[in-house]
Design brief:
The chain is built from eight helices and 67 strands.
Length: 984
């Protein structure tokens, strides 16, 4: 089992507070616990707290009982360090006090892993090694579900003769007790492998010293044990040195069944023998795996051993080119879960099947469990007792599109995933696995056990509550891939006729929700979580409008800015009601502006611009507009199908857009058509108290009011009103934007927001465009399910506005996008890129630069959600061999020098390039000699940046027609430039 540890993590205060409140509310009597609502959540960002305190805890093992309760065994630093146990009941509620029950005396924090088995009754047996008076010793303890320790306060001393600290004792069980194997030592430094059988009342069955499987030898030793299902056990151990591997079988009475020295599994010449382990074949024998190494060449061996000691797969086993954790099914087959390292930073997970005769199953192919950039560390594998396996891992690369090198919390963060596979090699859950825990922190070391025939439980070490402590969380997962409790089906309602709805009126739309409600009106609106200067953990950066009079008493709250937020909450509740979506408690799902606001803050759901600092060095963001892609993801996460169609927007000051009145007339038919399809729509209207002409307020259109079969006005739910009103009441029946809420949920979205005096045109990988070119006064809208336009939001007091331009593409095709940014004024601009992968929402690094009216800058956006981090790359001009007027070929078989210049232009200063980051060609070659020289290479009296490269090191082939240079500026902006070349 892999168990890597990280300590610099994100912390989400609101989630932590909720978890702590839930946890401490559970510290009540057992009867009261069983009466409370289940603590198993379906939210992978919350999970179930098991142990939360100010110390470090490391989860070691879990074991579930038939009644659904689970023992969680962990190490804790409390009182100098020790082994502790917590019991959680079938509802996910901790039963014992928050510090759990301590097992044995003080144990060093470096104590190796702990072995546990079921006592087939009301408890478990734990075996461990601890150092007393400087000497390693083996102890065992039996603990019941009531917390009582049955083998004394400090446990049962199994052996005081263990000389090698860190050699884990092994344990298995039989009908009436346990069998333990360990490495015993003597005063002369000798060691031998010993076994002992202990009844569940704590009595030794075999000799007081146990049964010795080997004679005394000098040097390290190790041992592993597996039950033979008949009251005895198989044992693996080294021979007279660590290059010999032996196996022995001991029966129920302690009789050694094979030769006194055991059977030699491997007699090949090897300089080392490692990674040996075995599992029962569930047919009376075992499968064994080990690795030999000689002259730096490693070979992975597999063997099947029958109960009589015969080897079924040859003298030294079968050799296959893969290794990993092993597990067997009930049909006599072995499975190898491999965690191959693709390169130093990438690990994938595959699974292979070895049939009972040793041949490869699944036509010799592996089944891919997860294959993507970044490190996926295998954590645990478990037989689900339903002809399948559960595989858990933690993903160190939390952004599925690639690690964000600008985020100091990455790649230290890690999320927990799981996948289920059947014995035929079919992946049963979604591609890439399901997310078990994605709290913004490190989750590592997940362990699994079965709860019942339909569910299992994972527990892990979690740092969400701070990077100076480790807590333990758990999650119930069902075999269908859902999290939390399986909902109890509601009784089938009696057939009662549904009232005929009023034509084109959403009669099921919930009552109006107001942004000024005292429950949430004063709560800070918008903002984002970010890592601030000198900090290591993310914290909420508030939205502040510093264009206001500094003496203003208005707060940047939901009451002031939350109209779009509130309108979206009402739409989510409408579709939750239509789709009969239930929450974890079985009630109709319902959200509100407060909950939605908190989720958007934590999940890149607001467009914000970069973090700024005021005169008092307080951080803030100057914008916070709701983005519809994240709203859709929030709805989907809670089981609600909600999406927004094409966004039709009025654009003042553009020659090819209508006035507000003509816009309403043009799009009234569209609004009527959607309302008659029972689809609500967001309307962008002019704020009733605003002094500006631009629209800045949002309402929800929920019906049509007719007069003589003609549209008279629109029924609306206005976030400023607690009753249903009409559009003509405050808005003169005029709307400036129309966004229809549907149930066609896209797989992904891509959004680019401009905080700037700019316009942009985006060209997708197929050549289609969207945006506005102010130089040619051309508007593009060629990409399906996309929209581009101004997004203005006005404060409820009417004295401030925020405005940005937003471009969104639903289900964008993967490939290279081009973004042309046109300056429409003088000043700084910022490009903010947000995108989704699955249910996760990510934000690319900000792009910031200066512009002037008429200037054009071009960026490339490689949008590949299976590759590296998505980011905007500025395109620069590159000239290969600028002094060669004949465009002579580059010869790849020569070591001659190729001159490559990055040119300075009106929109790019080559002197700003970080020369240490520059590479060229398919081989990403570093420059030869000096790292760039500033000189004017094209005679425009501006200093360009010249580099020298060796031709035969660029990775060029005759098929290459462009030679590209990549790098970054000193501000971290990625750049790329290419020039046509001839290669021979």
């Amino acid at each position: 089992m892999f168990h890597f540890r990280f300590f610099s993590k994100i912390i989400c205060n609101s989630v932590i507070t909720l978890s702590i409140v839930i946890f401490f509310s559970l510290l009540i009597t057992q009867n009261e616990i069983l009466a409370v609502t289940s603590n198993w959540t379906s939210d992978s960002s919350i999970n179930t707290p098991v142990i939360i305190n100010q110390q470090h805890q490391d989860v070691e093992k879990i074991l579930s009982k038939q009644d659904g309760s689970t023992f969680v065994i962990y190490k804790d630093q409390v009182d100098g360090g020790g082994i502790y146990v917590q019991l959680i009941d079938s509802l996910g509620n901790p039963v014992w006090p928050n510090d759990g029950v301590r097992i044995g005396s003080s144990v060093s924090w470096t104590t190796p892993s702990i072995a546990i088995v079921d006592d087939e009754g009301e408890g478990i047996v734990i075996v461990w090694e601890q150092r007393l008076n400087g000497k390693p010793q083996v102890y065992a303890q039996r603990i019941k579900k009531d917390g009582s320790l049955l083998w004394g306060v400090n446990g049962l001393l199994v052996s005081s003769d263990q000389n090698f600290f860190g050699r884990l004792p092994q344990v298995t069980n039989y009908d009436d007790g346990i069998i333990v194997s360990w490495v015993r030592g003597n005063s002369g430094g000798g060691v031998k492998v010993t076994m002992q059988k202990i009844s569940f009342n704590g009595s030794f069955i075999w000799d007081q010293q146990g049964i010795d499987l080997t004679g005394w030898r000098v040097g390290p030793q190790d041992t592993k044990i597996v039950s033979d299902k008949l009251g005895g056990a198989f044992v693996l151990y080294w021979g007279t040195n660590s290059q010999i591997l032996l196996i022995q079988h001991v029966d129920i009475n302690g009789n050694i069944l094979w030769s006194s020295s055991g059977k030699f599994l491997s007699d090949v010449a090897t300089s080392s023998l490692s990674r040996y382990g075995f599992v029962s074949d569930n047919s009376g024998g075992v499968f064994v795996r080990w690795i030999t190494s000689q002259n730096s060449v490693s070979e992975v061996h597999y063997q099947r051993v029958k109960s009589d000691g015969s080897f079924l797969w040859g003298a030294n086993g079968l050799i296959y080119p893969f290794s990993g954790d092993i597990i067997s099914d009930d049909l006599g087959n072995l499975y190898v879960i491999s965690n191959p390292r693709i390169d130093p930073w990438n690990l994938d997970i595959d699974i292979y099947k070895l049939l009972g005769d040793g041949s490869l199953g699944w036509n010799g192919n592996a089944t891919q469990i997860v294959q993507k950039p970044g490190a996926q560390f295998l954590s645990d594998v478990f037989n689900d007792n339903s002809n399948g396996f559960i595989i858990a891992w933690y993903d160190q690369n939390t952004k599925e599109g690639g690690a964000n090198s600008n985020d100091p919390n990455e790649p230290s963060e890690s999320d927990i995933y799981a996948q289920r596979i059947d014995v035929s090699g079919n992946v049963l859950w979604s591609q890439g696995g399901i997310i078990i825990s994605n709290s913004p922190s490190a989750q590592v070391g997940a362990v699994i056990d079965q709860l019942n025939n339909t569910s299992f439980i994972l527990a892990w070490t979690d740092e969400r509550n701070g990077n100076n402590r480790d807590d333990i969380y758990a999650q119930k997962v069902n075999l269908d891939g859902t999290l939390g409790d399986i909902p109890i089906p509601s009784p089938i309602p009696t057939a009662t006729p549904t009232p005929t709805p009023e034509p084109c009126v959403l009669t099921h739309f919930p009552d109006p929700v107001t942004q000024t409600d005292q429950t949430w009106g004063s709560i800070a609106y918008g903002g984002t979580y970010a890592v601030l200067k000198g900090k290591t953990e993310k914290e909420l950066v508030p939205f502040k409008d510093y264009e206001l009079n500094p003496n203003s008493t208005r707060k940047d709250s939901i009451a002031e800015w939350g109209c779009n937020l509130t309108a979206n909450a009402m739409n989510i509740n409408y579709y939750a009601k239509l789709q009969d979506v239930k929450d974890d408690a079985g009630n109709l799902f319902r959200t509100d502006p407060q909950v939605l606001n908190e989720w958007l803050q934590k999940n890149n759901g607001y467009d914000t611009g970069k973090v700024l600092y005021d005169n008092d060095n307080h951080p803030y963001v100057a914008a916070s507009g709701v983005m519809y892609g994240p709203v859709e993801r929030y709805a989907k996460k809670n089981g609600v199908k909600l999406s927004y169609g094409r966004n039709l927007k009025y654009k003042p000051d553009k020659p090819d857009y209508e006035t507000g009145e003509s816009f309403t007339a043009t799009h009234s038919a569209t609004l009527e058509q959607n309302l008659c399809a029972l689809q609500p729509a967001l309307l962008h209207v002019r704020h009733p108290s605003s002094t500006i002409q631009k629209p800045g307020h949002f309402v929800v259109a929920t019906g049509v009011q007719y007069e003589n079969d003609t549209v008279d006005t629109w029924r609306i739910h206005d976030p400023l009103s607690s009753v249903i009103t009409k559009l003509q009441d405050d808005y003169s029946d005029i709307f400036y934007g129309l966004l229809v809420a549907t149930t066609k949920v896209p797989d992904e979205f891509l959004t680019i927001i401009q905080h700037s005096p700019t316009e942009l045109v985006l060209t997708d990988p197929t050549g289609k465009k969207i945006g506005y070119n102010p130089l040619q006064e051309i508007t593009y809208s060629e990409i399906e399910d996309s929209f581009y336009g101004d997004e203005t939001l006005t404060a409820a007091s009417g004295d401030a506005t925020q405005e940005q331009k937003v471009l969104t593409i639903k289900s964008p095709p993967q490939g290279n996008y081009t973004i042309d940014v046109f300056g429409t004024g003088v000043g700084e601009y910022t490009l903010e890129t947000v995108y989704s992968v699955g249910d996760e929402i990510y934000k690319a690094p900000f792009v910031t630069d200066q512009t002037e009216n008429g200037q054009i800058r071009t960026y490339m956006l490689p949008f590949d959600t299976t590759g590296d981090l998505i980011e905007l790359i500025q395109q620069v001009i590159v000239d290969v061999d600028p002094h060669d007027k004949k465009n002579r070929p580059i010869y790849t078989d020569r070591s001659n020098i190729v001159h490559i210049a990055i040119l300075t232009t009106d929109t790019f200063d080559a002197a700003l390039v970080d020369r240490q980051t520059v590479t060229a060609g398919p081989a990403a070659t570093k420059p030869h000699g000096a790292a760039g020289v500033l000189q004017d290479v094209n005679g425009d009296k501006q200093k360009d940046l010249m580099f020298l490269f060796k031709a035969n090191g660029l990775g060029l082939t005759p098929a290459v027609t462009q030679l590209c240079v990549t790098g970054k500026t000193t501000a971290g902006q990625a750049v790329v430039g290419c020039d046509e070349v001839i290669v021979q």
